[in-house]
Amino acid sequence: MSQDFQPDWTMPLSEYARVQKESMPKIKPLVWIGEGSKMAFATTAIGDFKCQYASHANQWSASSNTWCPFRISWFNTFEEAKAWCEQEHERRVRECLM
What we know:
Elements: H1 13-23, E1 39-44, E2 47-54, E3 59-64, E4 71-75, H2 78-97
Antiparallel strand pairs: 1-2, 2-3, 3-4
């Protein structure tokens, strides 16, 4: 949030949330390597993300090896798995900015 922003306590909560969201920096999306194959990777300074097709389950797994425990989530499509990774990456970056 901008350092010079002073909350107006009479401001409606929805307006305050909008101002707060606008003041957050835009987070650069992940850059995927191997997209279009059965496995794709994205490497960042705060961790690595992987989307991989599991033929035995007929699903895509999305995982991150940054923090323990190692997290794996399952999705029906590559786009869903990739979206989870993007959301997890953004959450971690915002957590560092707080």
